[in-house]
Structures are given as C-alpha cells and as structure tokens.
C-alpha cells in the first residue's frame, strides 16, 4: 500500500517537544551560576556582550546561546547602551552573598552529567561526539569533523529519529505553501525526503532531488518507494558545501539545515543556493526563528541550546536570515508558520523568467 505524506496530525505535538527540551533550562542556568560565575561578573556592573564573553572565556556562539536563554528566562536585561545587566530578579536572588541568594540551591545540580556536558560544550564551542575517541557529530558533515552521518547504523538511526518530527510537519508545510507552479525542487540535506514527498504527492507534475550524504539517502530511497514517488524523486549524494549545486531547479528547500551551522557556513550556503537559482526562483528557509532582539521565545531559546550542544549551529532570528538572504541578492518574503515552532521564510531571486509559486 502506498503511504500518504499529505495528512496533517489531528493534534499538535508541540507541547511534547517543549517538555523534551526543558532540561536545557536547568543546564544553562546551573552552568551560569555554578561554573561560569556570570551573575558575579555582572554584579559589578553592566558589561558589553563581548566583555562578558571574555570574562567567562566563551566564544561568540556559546555566549549568544547562553545570553539568549538567560534573557528569555527574565534574568538578564539589555541597557540603553547595549550592555548586559542583571534583571531585578537576578540581582535579588542570584548574586552570591545576597540576603535572598539561591545560587547554592541551584548549585545542587552543578555536577549532574547534563550540566557538566553543557559546560564542556560552552567552553570548547565544539559539538558532542566529534572528538577523536567519539562516535561522530550528529546531523552535520563537513571536511575536518567526525560525522555520525557517514556510518550506516548511526545515519539511519538519526535520520529516522528526525522523521518523527518531519512526518508531523511536512503535510502542514506542503498544505500551506503550494508548489503548483514549480518544476523541480532541490531539498538540500533532505534526510528521509519526507518534505519533498509531501509536495510530490500534492503536485503530480513536480520533480525533486534530495541532496544528502550517501548513508542517509538509503533511508530516503526507501521512503520514496513506500510513498510511491520514486520515479520523480532523485536521491543525489554530495557535500552541500563543496559539490556543485544541482542545476535546473527552481525551488530550493533548506529545512532545519541552517540551524546546524555557524554564521559563516550559513552565509556561504545561502550564497551557493542563490547563485544556483534562476531569476524568479525561490529559496525556502524552513526553520525556527528567535525574536529579532535575541531574547526569546523561551521554547526556541531552549531548542537553540539543544542545537548548540549537538551541532555547529544555534537558532537564528528572522532578521539574521533576512540579512543573509539580502546579502545573497534574494528578496525576503513573509514567514508562514508550520508546526512545532517552525515556519517557512522565502527568498526570491529577482527577475521574471519563471514563476515558481
Ligand atoms: C537536521 S537534518 C535535517 C533533515 C530534514 N531536512 C528535516 O528538516 O528534517 C540535517 C541533514 O543535513 C544533512 N547534511 C549534513 N551535512 C551535509 C553536507 N555537508 N552535505 C549534504 N548533506 C548534509 C544530514 O545528513 C541531515 O540529513
């Protein structure tokens, strides 16, 4: 029987994802209190983000993840000069030695494995799993890192784990954003390919390419077969940072890709996509979005910590994505929300040779 990828779930699973990511609140708060002395540093007065990062020995990416979360928790504020300051709550209860200080209580979790792991990630700015004696980083492949996506068992396990979220979200994305006028979709880092499959099932004339690592594509190929679209879905192995971007596509999807990478890789990848598109073509960024002020929303700030721990990325704001689209010569559009905190932000290449949406 052919499986359908076009039916949305009856209930929204978002609360389950929020519960699952709750541990990162404990980890970041305890790291800040018991390992990094963040509240002590700021008790002496407001600091620029750079000065606070230097005081704690943190690079930009871990600092952004930590500060975004603490602002979402209501523990840090930004003053009129762009310096970080303690909120009233933090000043009253998290400055060591204060009358109502609770930092000793928070310190009860200081040696828990999750907190120690987060502190290690914050200090080294390296994802879990990529050290010499470890099994490889999840979800990311580039030259110079050990990647779990290069081994059959771990690639299959991680790809199918992500499919749990994707099979809920893909029907919603395909239902809210029609590709009726598109000819050929390129799904970069498409994993199981379920997002492409949902669109292929909606639009019988559409063709798609899932561009991913060879071991991941074994799963994508099985999914294309079981969903009856194998004749229109090409599984193409490659490295999205180095191999030529496949030509002849008029829509490119980056679903949950950019959040796995640091700023330089995001800008490079968006630039490569923009160059490959014809005038009128579209780049679709399907992802979560932090507030443009990088102070929440809380569930995205916690998801950002999860991404930070596992990959070389973090969550970004719509303003950050829009800036990179403009830099690449694309015109950003409006975000259409999908499910599980995700939304799709289009960037259109100016020109009118082909209308895709
Ligand atoms: C977080 S998953 C996203 C999967 C899917 N797009 C989704 O939204 O669920 C990232 C995907 O990018 C792929 N990937 C990572 N680095 C890559 C590279 N250098 N070239 C091609 N694919 C890569 C991974 O194998 C994985 O399937």
Automatic annotation (TrEMBL):
<keyword id="KW-0489">Methyltransferase</keyword>
<keyword id="KW-0808">Transferase</keyword>
<dbReference type="InterPro" id="IPR001077">
    <property type="entry name" value="COMT_C"/>
</dbReference>
<dbReference type="InterPro" id="IPR029063">
    <property type="entry name" value="SAM-dependent_MTases_sf"/>
</dbReference>
<feature type="domain" description="O-methyltransferase C-terminal">
    <location>
        <begin position="177"/>
        <end position="330"/>
    </location>
</feature>
<dbReference type="InterPro" id="IPR016461">
    <property type="entry name" value="COMT-like"/>
</dbReference>
<dbReference type="InterPro" id="IPR036390">
    <property type="entry name" value="WH_DNA-bd_sf"/>
</dbReference>
<protein>
    <submittedName>
        <fullName>Methylase involved in ubiquinone/menaquinone biosynthesis</fullName>
    </submittedName>
</protein>
<dbReference type="Pfam" id="PF00891">
    <property type="entry name" value="Methyltransf_2"/>
</dbReference>
<dbReference type="InterPro" id="IPR018247">
    <property type="entry name" value="EF_Hand_1_Ca_BS"/>
</dbReference>
<keyword id="KW-0949">S-adenosyl-L-methionine</keyword>
<keyword id="KW-0830">Ubiquinone</keyword>
<dbReference type="GO" id="GO:0008171">
    <property type="term" value="F:O-methyltransferase activity"/>
</dbReference>
<dbReference type="GO" id="GO:0032259">
    <property type="term" value="P:methylation"/>
</dbReference>
<dbReference type="InterPro" id="IPR036388">
    <property type="entry name" value="WH-like_DNA-bd_sf"/>
</dbReference>
